[in-house]
Amino acid sequence: MNEQSGVGELKGIGEKTEKLFQKLGVFTVGDLIRYFPRGYDVYDPPVSIGEIQEQKVQAVRGMIYGTLQVSSRGAQVTSGYLKDMTGTIKIVWYRMPFLRNTLQNGQIVILRGRVVTKKGVRVMEHPEIFSPADSYEKN
Fold first, then answer.
1. Tens of pLDDT along 25-48?
2. What is the pLDDT at residue 40?
3. Segments forming the whole domain that contains residue 24
4. For 24, what's the count of Cα atoms within 13 Å in the CB-facing half-sphere?
């Protein structure tokens, strides 16, 4: 087998998988070796709220503060606050009202998302949720 061999010749690659690779433009073993993903996520360790940088995807460890509110002016928006020793940040999820029952006041979580400023308030929009027990740092 060499770089000119078709991907279908690789052990474990059947007809279905070969067709999926072809949709990606991967026809030979050489193509597969040089195929790089379009993008990837880096899961850096959590930072404190005081260290958050705007427009950058970051993780923050903190405590849910106050009750999560669900408002619906045409769209369901679940919002609340996350705090740590260095500050507080607003957190917002769209079309996820069940989070009001999932996340409890005083619960310690790790949230990962992009931070923006809206009307002078820092907001983390639609963050991923991790439990500290999930070993976020190992992802």
1. 999 999 999 998 888 888 899 999
2. 83
3. 1-40
4. 15
Q: Which residue has the tokens 């619960």?
A: 107
Looking at residue 41, its pLDDT comes to 86
d(CA 21, CA 30): 12
Long-range contacts of 33-40 (CB under 8 A, 24+ apart): 33/3
* Residue keyed to tokens 């405590």: 63
Same domain, 66 and 124: yes
**pLDDT of res. 67:** 72
Distance (Å) of CA 132 to CA 56, 103, 107, 123, 135: 21, 13, 10, 21, 6
3-state helix, strand, coil in the chain (%, to 5): 20, 40, 35
Reduced to 3 states (helix: H, G, I; strand: E, B; else coil), residue 134 is helix
For residue 54, the SS3 value is: coil
Token pair for 55:
């427009």
Across the strands, what pairs with 123?
90, 116
- Over the stretch 78-103, which tens digit does the pLDDT of each residue have? 899 999 999 999 999 998 889 988 99
Domain shared by 54 and 98, yes or no: yes
pTM comes to 0.72
